[in-house]
Write a structure and sequence with these properties.
Order of helices and strands: HHHEEE
Shape: rod-shaped
Low-confidence stretches: none
Strand order of the largest sheet: 1-2-3
Number of strands: 3
Structural class: alpha+beta
Largest sheet: 3 strands, antiparallel
Strand content: 15-25%
Number of helices: 3
Mean pLDDT: 83
Radius of gyration: 24 Å
Number of domains: 1
Oligomer: single chain
Helix content: 40-55%
Length: 137
Amino acid sequence: MRAERATALVMVPAVALVFIVLAAIALDLTAVAGVQRSAERTLAAAVDDAAGLIDGRAHQADGSIRIDRVRAEQLVRARIGAEELPGRVVGLTVDVTATTVDATVRIETPHIFLRAVPGLADSTLSSPIHLRARLRD
């Protein structure tokens, strides 16, 4: 029993180090989730506004109600470009049909704490955000 007394003394710093590493990973992933939520709110507002851009000429010509494709795409791109997002916009695709606006954006977020890990200093975290708005009849 006397030889086992120092076991806890060695285990406490090891467990503390594991908790610190897990907290760093959690904070990095939380930062990415925050950037994703911010970008999703911005994209949702842009796509929703773009779906409301009615093609006035087509409506006057034949009475049809459809989305103005050129103006809708310009609006989504302008809103995403003008927004001060915490991450970096890597890719933005906008697909506009007569009744829907689909937009996908990928935002890269740099690591906060995991930069200290060798090999991760220049890497970023990202995931695509896809939203669709539909013109109601």
